[in-house]
Amino acid sequence: LKLLSTLAEVKEAEIDGLVLVPTMGALHEGHLSLVRKGSQLGKPVVVTIFVNPLQFAANEDLSRYPRNLEQDCQLLGGEGVEYVFAPSVAEIYPRVSSKVSVPEVTEEFEGAKRPGHFDGVATVVCKLFQIFRPSAAVFGLKDLQQCAVIERMTQDLNIPVQLCFEPTVRENDGLAKSSRNAYLTAAQRNSAPVLYRELNRCAEAISQGNNVASALEQARVQLTDAGFSIDYFELIDRISFRRTENLNKDSAIIAAAKLGTTRLIDNVLLFTTPNMS
Ligand code: AMP
Hints:
- This protein has 277 residues and is of the alpha/beta class.
- It has helices at 7-13, 29-40, 69-78, 89-92, 110-113, 117-132, 144-156, 186-191, 194-207, 212-225, and strands at 2-4, 19-23, 45-49, 83-85, 136-140, 162-166, 229-237, 242-243, 251-259, 262-269.
- It has ten helices and ten strands.
- The longest helix has 16 residues, at 117-132.
- The chain binds adenosine monophosphate.
């Protein structure tokens, strides 16, 4: 495994036709599933580890976000990853005068709750695409709105990259793996799987033809009873990222809710699993 930390080192490495797996580090099985998908594509895999300040709001957890480059590299070495790119903030942002915005799919949900977040994500991913010119890039469906943003950005800006979106990796009790799960107290960790349980129950009810509004409301009540403070729990179209009552192949239920100060997000797709576009 080669550790690259500057743009000059990237240039010197002359990696062609690679598969990019962008992350913020503190790697877990969810990230490793993306890496494994990347390896299956038969090209060198580059994992980027960069806690991107541009996607954190002032009140968010940038300074306490878990960082452990050494352990991350060990995990990635074990997966046969060829390159890790872990640049400094100054290397990526000598200045920030241009940003990428994808307004249509970011008006609601995470975009509304976290103003500026998706500009930060789109900007850094666009920069990584320019730096590496990957033939493919792998992202997790866990961050469903992020997938919509990246898909729309690559279409709008004609970026020639194949996108792979991989299913969410979960703990045995259903909780989606996330670096932020470490913030949960033991009691909150016990309640946390209720989020996925209610997403599934609601998906089941809606696919069986039950009334959408009441299925959603029932799930919200269950979550509130379990101690969650809900930001949103909605049926949407994963391409437009708008609420919908009509089911189609892109229907998904998305949720964000807090247990104490820790915010969990999760989703379920009602029908197909998109893994490539
Ligand atoms: P992050 O390090 O949180 O920015 O995530 C980097 C990539 O890993 C993103 O594409 C995430 O969607 C993906 N990811 C995070 N958690 C999971 C998970 N539990 N299962 C699958 N992919 C994940």
